[in-house]
């Protein structure tokens, strides 16, 4: 099987170089989106077969295989938007048909065209595709303070939805540059808007956008800036302990953090801001903590923390990404059972961290519970770190692994 993948824009009458025209005129089987079909129909040879690229894609791939069985060239010519290797369909074809021969004829992608229209240098642009994807990489770019950020959109992740998310989490110091129908002289439109205005407008598809702005990153959020559970100052992992706990979790090389007993969300939020590549799943049994974490996440600009309210021991965790780092902020006397459940999903190289407070009036010594559980479950402990803050009781940072 052989693919020619030809990049086009929204221009109604595209210019094709002679070598590309030769490929098209000698072809038989063609494919692309409905919009692509409308644009290139005048260039197709008589009797051309067209395969629409629509969901589900598995059906499209089956049509490709069936078509090549009945044509001597076994060749499919695909039209795709812009540069087919820039978050484009050529990457999909390479993955699905790794043994197929392929040649790509690119044109400018939509973000390049938008930068050209704006006379904006784009060599340092941070690019994020939200086309059929989650918010994860976009959130990461915001937290890291990237600028400019080039964004490929879809019908769900529209410029208005993007602006609304940024405003919700306090990323207000950005200007949005939107390009609609780039390459189509009849419908092309450029807009440069503040986020408030962009959040209230509709934009026609296809579109893309570039964000210009800045947002300072924080490291070590003071405890008093958090909204607290019932205004109880003790119901938060104190900032110096928080930073040391994150260090113990070795988060720069981790992928998924579970925060069990998140309460105010201080661990999850600090981890999200410092290590935005992480996927974070936060658990707490108290319904009040859901609103608390949402408020604090908005306050400090930490989108993308996934919350689970209810008893962790009763939660269905089978569909969640497996953790390679787990912080236990509260256990309600059920530490051994929590550890046992965590071990069913913890990766082989994962670790677990918990803080133990040495308080004389506490009936149950959490360090003792930890030691007993680790011994029974065959976990390997690191040497604990003991910290004393001000006049508070000593805190030990405990860590174990398989």
Key terms:
single chain; 402 residues; alpha/beta; Cobalt-precorrin-4 Transmethylase, domain 1; Methyltransferase, Cobalt-precorrin-4 Transmethylase, Domain 2; Rossmann fold; 3 domains; five-stranded parallel sheet; 13 helices; elongated
β-strand number: 18
Rg estimate, integer Å: 27 Å
Count of helical segments? Answer: 13
Name the helicity range.
25-40%
Q: Would you kindly provide a written description of the structure presented here, covering whatever features stand out?
A:
The protein is α/β, with parallel strands linked by helices. The chain has 3 domains: 2-107, 3-Layer(aba) Sandwich (Cobalt-precorrin-4 Transmethylase, domain 1), CATH 3.40.1010.10; 111-213, Tetrapyrrole methylase, C-terminal domain (Methyltransferase, Cobalt-precorrin-4 Transmethylase, Domain 2), CATH 3.30.950.10; 223-401, Vaccinia Virus protein VP39 (Rossmann fold, 3-Layer(aba) Sandwich). The protein has 13 helices and 18 strands. Strands 11, 12, 13, 14, 15, 16, 17 and 18 form an 8-stranded mixed sheet that branches. It is elongated and about 85 Å long. The mean pLDDT is 93.
Q: How would you summarize the topology of this molecule?
A:
Blueprint: E1 2-8, H1 18-25, E2 29-32, H2 34-40, E3 49-52, H3 57-69, E4 75-81, H4 89-96, E5 101-105, H5 110-118, E6 126-129, H6 136-143, E7 149-152, H7 159-168, E8 174-180, E9 189-194, H8 195-198, E10 207-213, H9 239-249, E11 256-260, H10 266-274, E12 279-284, H11 288-300, E13 305-309, E14 325-328, H12 335-343, E15 351-357, H13 366-377, E16 380-381, E17 385-387, E18 395-401
Parallel strand pairs: 1-4, 1-5, 2-3, 2-4, 6-7, 11-12, 11-14, 12-13, 14-15
Antiparallel strand pairs: 7-10, 8-9, 8-10, 15-18, 16-18, 17-18
Helix pairs in contact: 9-10, 12-13
């Amino acid at each position: 099987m052989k693919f020619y993948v030809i990049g086009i824009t929204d221009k109604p009458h595209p210019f094709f170089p002679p070598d590309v025209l030769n490929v098209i005129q000698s072809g038989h089987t063609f494919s692309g989106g409905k919009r692509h079909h409308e644009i290139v129909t005048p260039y197709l040879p008589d009797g051309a077969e067209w395969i629409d690229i629509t969901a589900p894609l598995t059906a499209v791939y089956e049509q490709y295989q069936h078509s090549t069985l009945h044509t001597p060239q076994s060749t499919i010519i695909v039209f795709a938007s812009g540069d087919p290797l820039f978050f484009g369909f050529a990457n999909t074809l390479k993955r699905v048909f790794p043994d197929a021969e392929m040649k790509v004829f690119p044109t400018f992608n939509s973000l390049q065209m938008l930068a050209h229209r704006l006379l904006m240098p784009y060599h340092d642009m941070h690019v994020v595709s939200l086309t059929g994807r989650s918010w994860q990489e976009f959130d990461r770019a915001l937290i890291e303070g990237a600028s400019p950020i080039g964004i490929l959109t879809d019908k769900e992740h529209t410029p208005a939805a993007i602006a609304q998310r940024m405003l919700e989490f306090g990323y207000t110091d950005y200007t949005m540059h939107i390009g609609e129908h780039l390459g189509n002289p009849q419908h092309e439109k450029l807009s440069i808007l503040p986020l408030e205005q962009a959040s209230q407008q509709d934009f026609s598809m296809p579109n893309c956008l570039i964000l210009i702005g800045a947002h300072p990153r924080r490291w070590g959020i003071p405890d008093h800036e958090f909204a607290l559970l019932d205004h109880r100052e003790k119901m938060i992992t104190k900032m110096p302990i928080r930073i040391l706990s994150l260090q113990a979790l070795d988060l720069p090389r981790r992928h998924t953090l579970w925060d069990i007993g998140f309460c105010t969300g201080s661990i999850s939020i600090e981890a999200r801001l410092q290590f935005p590549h992480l996927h974070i799943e936060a658990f707490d049994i108290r319904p009040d903590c859901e609103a608390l974490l949402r408020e604090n996440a908005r306050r400090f600009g930490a989108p993308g923390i996934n919350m689970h309210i209810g008893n962790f021991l009763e939660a269905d965790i089978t569909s969640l990404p497996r953790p390679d780092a787990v912080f236990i902020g509260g256990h309600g006397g059920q530490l051994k059972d929590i550890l046992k459940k965590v071990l069913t999903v913890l990766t082989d190289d994962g670790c677990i961290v918990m803080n133990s407070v040495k308080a004389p009036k506490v009936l149950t010594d959490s360090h003792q519970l930890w030691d007993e559980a680790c011994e029974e479950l065959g976990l390997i402990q690191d040497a604990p770190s003991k910290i004393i803050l001000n006049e508070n009781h000593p805190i030990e940072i405990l860590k174990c692994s398989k």
